[in-house]
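Page 42, continued from yesterday. The earlier attempt failed because a stray header line got pasted into the input along with the sequence. Redoing it now with the clean sequence only.
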Amino acid sequence: MDRPSGDHRQQARPPPQGPRSRRPWSLPDSDPPPGSSLVDAAETEAPDGGWGWAVVAASFAAHAIADGFGFSFGVLFAELLSVFGETKSRTAWIGSLFVSVPAICGPVAGALTTRFGCRWTTIAGAVIASVGCLASAFTNSVGQLCFTFGFVAGFGLALVYVPALIVVAFYFEKNRAFATGK
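This time it went through. Structure tokens are written below.
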């Protein structure tokens, strides 16, 4: 027996080794090679201005586009009613899905942002949202529009919206409240 008879505590096991031992969001166990982009968070400082204001402007544009799509759906609603000849409640699902899918997919977008970074998540989201909007131009029914515009474009905008919220905090420390609009 490995432990004394009076000691009922479990002995600490060594951490597992190998490629599957790390979680996808954890940092590697060894130091990064020189010149790599992986930098310790304690060594980085928020610049509090400069390029950060360009990031704030880009974040504002992303929010204006994402929210503008959702809030302007009422303008399209009357036209969709006449084109598809569906009931108001069935046609309203298009806008409802488009507004709710980014909120529902927020945790997924956050995990992807943590894994791949703000830049690549935003690029992927912009491509997915563009494909969804473009595909919705070729739909023939409300059901297809719910899928292309509601789910696909909505998920793409989730991948744009979440990093746009996060990225501003990386560029500001002292002026963070002003930059984020709080």
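Notes: The helical segments are 51-71, 73-84, 88-104, 106-116, 118-136, 142-171, 176-180.
Reminder to self: strip header lines before submitting.
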